[in-house]
Amino acid sequence: MAIEVTVPALGESITEATLGEWLKQPGDAVAADEPIASLETDKVALEVPAPQAGVMGEHKVAVGDTVEVGAVIAMIEAGSGAAPSKAAETPVDPPEKSPSVTAAKAADKQDEVTASITLSPSVRRLVLEHGVDPSQISGTGKDGRLTKADVEQYVKSGAQQAPQAETGAATSAQTPAAPSPSSSQGGNRNEERVRMTRLRQTVARRLKEAQETAALLTTFNDVDMTAVIETRSKYKELFAKKHGVKLGFMGFFVKAACMALKDVPSVNAQIDGEEIVYHDYADISVAVSAPNGLVVPVIRNAESMSFADVENTIGDFGKRAKDGTLTMADMKGGTFTISNGGVFGSLMSTPIINPPQSAVLGLHRIEDRAVVVDGEIVVRPMMYLALSYDHRLIDGREAVTFLVRMKEAIEDPARLLIDL
User: Fold this and answer.
1) Active-site entry in 33, 65, 263, 391
2) Residue 46: how many CA atoms within 13 Å on its side-chain side?
3) The whole model's pTM is what?
4) pLDDT one-digit tens code per residue, 10-36
């Protein structure tokens, strides 16, 4: 007896998604709760589990289709299904075969191996790009599944599935719209068109809406990181031993922001129609890297957290962002955002607010610079801070005051302990 596979609940206010990829093909054996498809929503990517064990039946929708919650997307049939393909069982081409046949066989082998293991869309793409055998890579994700970091580390180690010429052929066969350089003749120039993910479309729309709706303005300050660097260096080993997590820079900035938001409440507020909504709590959205771009999970009630709580929460967000397991609930709400472009080497930027929030703090790289201290020129590790804000709600005086409070707390971390 066949059973329908439907689109699960996607989270509050989310009613539809885009089918990102089929992880199981008709005829494949499927275990209960095994991911069979990936969906992309406005905020995150998530997997659809099989409601029961059996055989993958008909796909009711195609990749790229928009589906609503509750819609039937596939069928699971009774039975045991076909055994997974093994790369070792694929005959090797004899020497007399032409190069084109060898390339086709290499591509087939790679596709069979990749299809026999359940991979997320981002991991599958990376496997195909590098032409590696996923069965030879140890997974560190949930239930032993492969993550992007696992594949990248495997490639970095120099391990390869096949000789370079064969790997290149396999990769080229998988992406005909963008052939490998070795297949180009006479300096041909190639283009590849890739459909924007639903997440990227949503990010683009929201950022444009922010620019069109809010009166955006950015103000800057710089901060001497000497005290934070010394404090972190002095206590990082004890901190890690006691709390089981590294003491990073972000914990200092989150706690400093909470103090500054308390002193300048308009930066933590938002406009709702003709009213201003003030918050007596600080839900800090922290931008982290995910396979499909930046996402902003929320540290809730950060004002009442310890340094260890903040660092543990950020570490968990980072890991789950890479694994693709962040949920809608993780990113719901938020009263203020911190974005750290410094990890990518940014010296200065003008970040865009995350509606309906009214401000975003941009952090940048730490760089030794000559500064004047007590009348003398000295070299100090400096960082530029940027606060972009909605000028409809936040005045320039308040924005500058906020950054001054941040600067004071970072340059004298003891203020964080005695609430100054």
Assistant:
1) 391
2) 18
3) 0.62
4) 766 678 888 888 989 999 999 988 888
